[in-house]
Amino acid sequence: MTPEACVHINAITEIKHPVKRVCEECVKIGSTWVHLRTCQECGGTRCCDSSPNRHATRHAHATGHPVIASAEPGERWLYCYPDDAFAEY
Ligand SMILES: [Zn+2]
Ligand SMILES: [Zn+2]
Ligand SMILES: [Zn+2]
């Protein structure tokens, strides 16, 4: 991990990857998404801020789960909402 990343990111020892490459909230409402992010607290996969519904950010604010990982193939990074911290792995 990047040394300057926050405590939340540094506490992660194993990255949670998406079980299914879909936004679990968009699927329920029949919406679409642009990119996917996986919550590192509960493992749920939701859509990014470029998507109309921004489910990953809404989930982080609603639950207090701080860190997401990109669920996009070839992207290897983590982001922490409360610290606005970013780290590649
Ligand atoms: Zn943090
Ligand atoms: Zn969504
Ligand atoms: Zn979560």
Written overview of the protein:
With 89 residues, the protein is an alpha+beta fold. 21% of the residues lie in helices and 21% in strands. It contains 3 helices and 5 strands, in the order ααββαβββ. It has helices at residues 7-10, 24-29, 55-63, and strands at residues 36-39, 45-47, 67-70, 77-80, 85-88. Strands 2-1-3-4-5 form a 5-stranded antiparallel β-sheet. Strand 4 (77-80) and strand 5 form a beta hairpin. The chain is globular. The N and C termini lie close together (6 Å). The mean pLDDT is 96. The chain binds zinc ion (ZN) (3 copies). One zinc ion binds next to helix 3. One zinc ion (ZN) binds at residues 23, 25-26, 33, 46-47, 51, 53, 55.
Mean pLDDT: 96
Oligomeric description of these chains: single chain
Can you give the helix content as a percent range?
10-25%
* Structural category: alpha+beta
Distance separating the two termini: 6 Å
Largest sheet, spatial ordering of strands: 2-1-3-4-5
Bound molecules: zinc ion
Which strand-content bin applies to the residues?
Answer: 15-25%
User: Topology as H/E string?
Assistant: HHEEHEEE
Number of helices in the DSSP assignment: 3
Count of individual beta strands: 5
Provide the gyration radius in Å: 12 Å
Give the biggest sheet.
5 strands, antiparallel
Low-confidence stretches: none
**Rough outline:** globular
Keywords:
89 residues; alpha+beta; 3 helices; 5 strands; globular; binds zinc ion
Which helices and strands, and how do they pair?
Elements: H1 7-10, H2 24-29, E1 36-39, E2 45-47, H3 55-63, E3 67-70, E4 77-80, E5 85-88
Bound molecules: zinc ion (3 copies).
